[in-house]
């Protein structure tokens, strides 16, 4: 057993091997003993030896040696006839069969290993096929154009996206990629490809232009790398192309976005200023600037919605463009509902009135929104052929000022620039601008004017009024409102007046006269009004019943002052309305709020005085109004009465009191004069 | 061997493989001319190579049966090579039919061959991984569903670590397997050494440089060191004929070429 065992590896224990071999020996012995003799049964021994892996190189030789000796001399077979002959036959059969089985086994194993090899290769191939399929998928479905080119630029592979970028219907394979380089970029691109090919850089990524099949340039990002063969030699270029033409267009558009109004496509204000400067400085025959403001546009936006508003703005833009289409002109949107038209005049340019008519006619054409025709009107300030010396700032200011004046006239108005009006406005503006400084320097003063009872022409009250040099109370208040100073100015005036009145009373011991203070619109809306008034009364010692405050009628109408009226009244301060014109809406306030008195506006008083002879209707109306108001328990004062005759008329219709130049401070005597004539 | 031109180059049959050389030395037919030519050179360098191969295979068998006796029912055979005779699952099953085996090899043909053999076997399979990446191997093995992490594992590294170069840190590789298995798990490891026959070993190293599997013999101390964290069972790390022999053997331990042993994780 040892003889065969050591020649090969048999996966059995020694005991197992011994049993196995003894079994085989039995088969052989049986065959030798059998009559008639045949060697055939021994063949199976060869099969079983090979199957059990007794297949060492020397196994057969050793088997024959061992068996030959053992079989011939074993006592068990001693009686067998012609034993030697039979043993030779048996060993021969065993050998033959062993050899055959070995050969078959070798074939089987070779088949197996080849099959394994095949499978391994197929496995590798499958992996390759999968990776190829993956590559295909990426290649085909990529939104990036991909082209694989030979070092000379000939395309060997290109995907659909690449075709699309170059606008090619046919495959690019076989074409030259460098032929699609933009002439301006060809040189630098060729150099970049070379540096990748030569390994100077691994890849490059640049924004360049390619030329499409139709000759149009395409802006692209190119990412280019190189594929090397097994020897490291450059075999192919891989060019990835991202079409950024749109991006590029957007970049270009960005500039115009900054210059254009996105809704109408017109120049925006910034661009308008630049354009205006250019045209103005180059103009031969001078320019004309139309500054338009759409009338009541907020009503359209609020009432019909911003979509409708936007449509009308677009419509207006295109119509204005149409008006100046055949002229050297441009249109801009320079504010929410403001447009500008600048015409560079030529000898044939229509005059301003013609142009205004054309603009008005165009705008009058209704735009239909939900079957409803809507037309806009515009108010226009016109600056015609301003001096070439003027700066853009001056042009804009002058046009704006003219527009503001035109708007004051109403809707669908236009005005040419008026240098005198301009000068006046500018002077007023300068004065207004100086008010804060004047207030700071104590240049504002408080004058006292008598409030005269019309029944017997006696002084029934003291009205405190602001004065700054030659500017009177109303102008001072208007400027204070404009500069945002009205609250501190108002508080200062109230305190000053109260202190003076208290001092005056103490000095003269006269019957107390109530102090009248008329507030501006902004002062009327002051949320801290009641608090400020109470503090003043506390600190000055003026009795609460001796103060009469009147709020501005318009301010109360607009709202925001209702609380002030109510709380002042609740605090024991009789509260009235000033600047009352007599409108229905104003009258309605009397029923809504605890109004103690009202003061007819000087403008209304003046208007009635001017028309005394001509307009009985207005006078009758005022008479009825005064009667009705007084019936309601509200006292009425007329402000700005200038003559005794006027005063008489007001007295005649039952008016309680009047203020104005008809009763000048100089008419006062005694202790009153001390207050009214006191001018430091 | 002439390859049809559709065969991709990635499966390299031109370079002999240790797995097929081993098969040849064991008297198998799963080899190519290149393997057999290398085998002849191997035999010239180490005339006892066939016996050494047989001894190594026999050691594998005895080690598996030893582990079965110690309750191991799941095996991870690292570097299993060509399935020739006396494969782990066959040996294990004769003693414990429920044994599960995951073979691990990296070489395409060995893996393909093993797959063919194990195609219909529910309790044995092969994963194609590099045994020097224990985390990957273990994950793949767990992924087969045949290995239970909570159960002691028989890790077999028989005749394979002499292919792991020093720069792959064989001690760290073994340690990673050790750390991943539960106590009671076993490691059987055998590998070539130059301690016994330095001249022949040097010859083998030269020969194997021409294969895809160069060899790195290790000293007894180095091999014993690979068992760090394991209690090495009797008789320790020894020439293979001396490891728990089954009765008669006239193999000379001094010419056995390979040292091996079995350890039990503490």
Automatic annotation (TrEMBL), chain A:
PAC domain mapped to chain residues: 204-256
Pfam families assigned: EAL (PF00563), GGDEF (PF00990), PAS_4 (PF08448)
GGDEF domain span: 285-419
Q: Which residues belong to any copy of the PAS domain?
A: 131-200
User: What residue stretches are annotated with the EAL domain?
Assistant: 428-680
Q: Which domain of life is it from?
A: Bacteria
Q: Which InterPro entries match?
A: Biofilm_reg_signaling (IPR052155), EAL_dom (IPR001633), EAL_sf (IPR035919), GGDEF_dom (IPR000160), Nucleotide_cyclase (IPR029787), PAS (IPR000014), PAS-assoc_C (IPR000700), PAS-like_dom_sf (IPR035965)
Task: Write down what this protein is called.
Answer: PAS domain S-box-containing protein/diguanylate cyclase (GGDEF)-like protein
Organism from which the protein derives: Umezawaea tangerina
Lineage of the species this protein comes from = Bacteria, Bacillati, Actinomycetota, Actinomycetes, Pseudonocardiales
UniProtKB/TrEMBL annotation, chain B:
Looking up InterPro entries in the UniProt record yields: SAM-dependent_MTases_sf, SAM_dep_MeTrfase_SAV2177_type
Query: Gene3D superfamilies, alphabetically?
Result: Vaccinia Virus protein VP39
> Mind listing the UniProt keywords for this protein, alphabetically?
Methyltransferase, Transferase
Which GO biological process categories is it annotated with?
methylation
- Transferase as a keyword of this entry, yes or no, is yes
Q: Which Pfam families match?
A: Methyltransf_19 (PF04672)
* GO function terms (MF aspect): methyltransferase activity
Q: What is this protein called?
A: S-adenosyl methyltransferase
Origin species: Umezawaea tangerina
């Amino acid at each position: 057993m040892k003889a065969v065992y050591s020649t090969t590896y048999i996966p059995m224990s020694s005991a197992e091997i011994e049993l196995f071999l003894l079994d085989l020996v039995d088969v052989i012995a049986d065959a030798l003993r059998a009559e008639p003799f045949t060697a055939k049964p021994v063949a199976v021994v060869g099969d079983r030896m090979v199957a059990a892996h007794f297949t060492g190189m020397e196994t057969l030789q050793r088997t024959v040696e061992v068996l030959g000796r053992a079989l011939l001399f074993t006592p068990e077979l001693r009686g067998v006839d012609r034993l030697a002959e039979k043993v030779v036959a048996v060993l021969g059969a065993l050998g033959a069969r062993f050899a055959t089985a070995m050969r078959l086994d070798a074939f089987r194993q070779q088949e197996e290993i080849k099959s394994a090899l095949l499978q391994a290769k197929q496995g590798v191939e499958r992996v390759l096929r999968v990776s190829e399929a993956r590559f295909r998928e990426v290649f085909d479905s990529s939104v990036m154009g991909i082209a694989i080119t030979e070092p000379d630029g000939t395309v060997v592979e290109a995907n659909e996206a690449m075709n699309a970028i170059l606008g090619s219907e046919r495959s690019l394979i076989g074409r030259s990629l460098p032929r699609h380089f933009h002439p301006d970029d060809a040189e630098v691109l060729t150099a970049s490809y070379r540096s990748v090919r030569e390994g100077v850089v691994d890849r490059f990524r640049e924004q360049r232009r390619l030329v499409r099949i139709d000759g149009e340039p395409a802006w692209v990002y190119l990412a280019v790398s190189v594929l090397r063969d097994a020897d490291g030699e450059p075999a192919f270029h891989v060019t990835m192309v991202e079409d950024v033409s749109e991006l590029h267009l957007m970049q270009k558009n960005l500039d115009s976005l900054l210059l254009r109004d996105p809704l109408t496509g017109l120049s925006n204000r910034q661009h308008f200023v630049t354009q205006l400067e250019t045209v103005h400085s180059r103009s031969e025959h001078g320019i004309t600037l139309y500054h338009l403001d759409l009338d009541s546009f907020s009503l359209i936006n609020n009432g019909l919605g911003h979509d409708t508003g936007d449509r009308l703005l677009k419509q207006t833009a295109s119509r204005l463009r149409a008006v100046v289409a055949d002229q050297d002109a441009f249109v801009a949107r320079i504010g929410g509902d403001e447009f500008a038209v600048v015409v560079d005049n030529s000898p044939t340019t229509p005059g301003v009135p013609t142009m205004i008519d054309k603009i008005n006619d165009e705008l009058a054409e209704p735009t239909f929104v939900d079957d409803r025709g809507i037309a806009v009107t515009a108010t226009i300030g016109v600056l015609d052929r301003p001096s070439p010396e003027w700066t853009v700032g001056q042009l804009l200011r002058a046009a704006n000022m003219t527009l503001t004046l035109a708007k004051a006239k109403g809707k669908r108005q236009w005005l040419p620039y008026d240098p005198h009006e301009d000068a006046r406005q500018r002077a007023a503006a300068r004065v207004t601008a100086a008010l804060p400084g004047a207030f700071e320097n104590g240049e504002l003063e408080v004058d006292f004017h008598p409030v005269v009872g019309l029944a017997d022409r006696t002084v029934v009250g003291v009205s405190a009024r602001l004065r700054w040099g030659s500017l009177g109370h109303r102008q001072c208040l208007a400027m204070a409102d404009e500069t945002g100073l009205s609250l501190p100015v108002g508080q200062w005036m109230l305190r000053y007046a109260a202190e003076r009145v208290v001092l005056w009373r103490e000095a003269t011991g006269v019957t107390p006269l109530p102090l009248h203070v008329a507030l501006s619109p902004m002062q009327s809306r002051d949320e801290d009004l009641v608090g400020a008034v109470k503090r003043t009364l506390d600190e000055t010692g003026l009795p609460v019943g001796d103060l009469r405050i009147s709020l501005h009628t318009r301010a109360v109408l607009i709202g925001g002052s209702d609380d002030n009226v109510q709380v002042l009244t609740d605090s024991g301060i009789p509260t009235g309305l000033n600047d009352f014109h007599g409108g229905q809406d104003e009258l309605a306030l009397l029923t809504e709020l605890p109004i103690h008195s009202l003061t007819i506006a000087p403008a209304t008083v003046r208007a009635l005085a001017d028309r005394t002879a001509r307009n009985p209707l207005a006078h009758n109306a005022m008479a009825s109004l005064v009667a009705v108001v007084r019936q309601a328990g509200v006292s009425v004062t007329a402000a700005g009465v200038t003559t005794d005759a006027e005063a008489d008329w007001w007295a005649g219709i039952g008016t309680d009191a009047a203020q104005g130049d008809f009763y000048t401070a100089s008419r006062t005597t005694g202790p009153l004069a001390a207050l009214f004539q006191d001018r430091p | 061997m002439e390859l049809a031109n559709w065969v991709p180059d990635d499966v390299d049959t031109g370079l002999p493989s240790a797995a097929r050389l081993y098969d040849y030395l064991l008297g198998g037919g799963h080899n190519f001319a290149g393997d057999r030519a290398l085998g002849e050179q191997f035999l010239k360098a180490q005339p006892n190579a066939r016996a050494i191969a047989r001894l190594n295979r026999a050691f594998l068998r005895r080690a598996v049966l030893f582990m079965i006796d110690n309750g191991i029912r799941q095996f991870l055979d690292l570097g299993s090579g060509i399935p020739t005779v006396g494969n782990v699952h066959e040996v294990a099953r004769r003693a414990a039919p429920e044994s599960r085996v995951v073979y691990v090899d990296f070489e395409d043909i060995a893996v393909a061959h093993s797959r063919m053999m194990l195609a219909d076997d529910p309790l044995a399979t092969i994963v194609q991984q590099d045994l020097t990446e224990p985390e990957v191997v273990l994950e793949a093995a767990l992924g087969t569903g045949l290995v239970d992490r909570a159960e002691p594992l028989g890790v077999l590294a028989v005749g394979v670590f002499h292919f792991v170069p020093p720069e792959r840190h064989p001690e760290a590789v073994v340690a990673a397997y050790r750390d991943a298995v539960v106590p009671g798990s076993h490691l059987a490891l055998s590998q070539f050494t130059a301690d016994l026959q330095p001249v022949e070993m040097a010859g083998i190293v030269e020969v194997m440089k021409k294969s895809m599997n160069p060899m790195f013999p290790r000293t007894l101390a180095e091999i014993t060191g690979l068992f760090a964290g394991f209690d090495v069972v009797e008789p320790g790390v020894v020439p293979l004929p001396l490891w728990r022999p089954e009765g008669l053997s006239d193999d000379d331990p001094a010419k056995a070429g390979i040292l091996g042993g079995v350890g039990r994780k503490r």
